[in-house]
Write a structure and sequence with these properties.
The chain has about 200 residues and is mostly helical. Helix content is about 75%, strand content about 0%. It is built from eight helices and no strands. Helix 4 packs antiparallel against helix 5.
Length: about 200
């Protein structure tokens, strides 16, 4: 499946998901939606960092004029961007001086992240088709990549992962996407009504 650009998805969210007549209302309450969404996710999923959630979502302009579906999609696209950037980082690190064990770990991480990128693209496509269950399964599968990558370095005592931050961020972004999808499935209507009531 080909990769749908982040810009194109943002445009689709802006023009299709958000009615123009409600633009000013949504823009005024968007920060509250992001804030409440991230607080709820941090409360319900202990591993989710409120700071990472809020900072990541608020950094994307279109997040300020979207809804929960849009936020979930943005989180997936941010995860995809993270995985793509990390793949480039791994390729650069592989050309530097590391001990043989670390180089093997980097090679494993390279494959894990390559697979994660493909799976995230499929997840985004499934989400855009409204197949949230499939999207969630694939996003969950992607979370194994940073976990396995990080654990690989820990197999040797004293070895420090050069990808600790990247692995943490990918895991967080995937978990945020899953949490928002969870909110959509189980309490979306109530949550959206509460967030937009101003």
């Amino acid at each position: 499946m080909y990769h749908i650009s982040f810009f194109l998805i943002c445009c689709c969210l802006f023009f299709l998901v958000i009615p123009h007549s409600k633009f000013s209302t949504i823009a005024a309450t968007s920060v509250d939606i992001i804030d409440q969404t991230c607080k709820k996710c941090a409360d319900e999923f202990n591993v989710i960092s409120y700071k990472v959630c809020a900072t990541s979502l608020q950094a994307v302009p279109v997040s300020h004029v979207t809804n929960l579906q849009g936020l979930a999609l943005i989180a997936m696209e941010l995860a995809l961007e993270n995985a793509t950037n990390t793949l480039s980082t791994i390729e650069k690190l592989s050309n530097k001086s590391f001990d043989p064990f670390a180089l093997v770990c980097l090679k494993d991480c390279l494959q894990l992240y390559s697979d994660a990128i493909t799976t995230l693209r499929d997840a985004v496509g499934a989400f855009l088709r409204g197949d949230y269950n499939t999207a969630n399964i694939w996003v969950s599968a992607v979370m194994e990549a940073p976990t396995t990558c990080e654990e690989g370095f820990k197999e040797k005592e004293g070895e420090v992962s050069p990808l600790k931050n990247e692995n943490y961020n990918l895991f967080q972004l995937c978990d945020i996407a899953l949490c928002i999808s969870h909110l959509l499935k189980y309490s979306g209507s109530t949550f959206l009504t509460r967030c937009s009531a101003t």
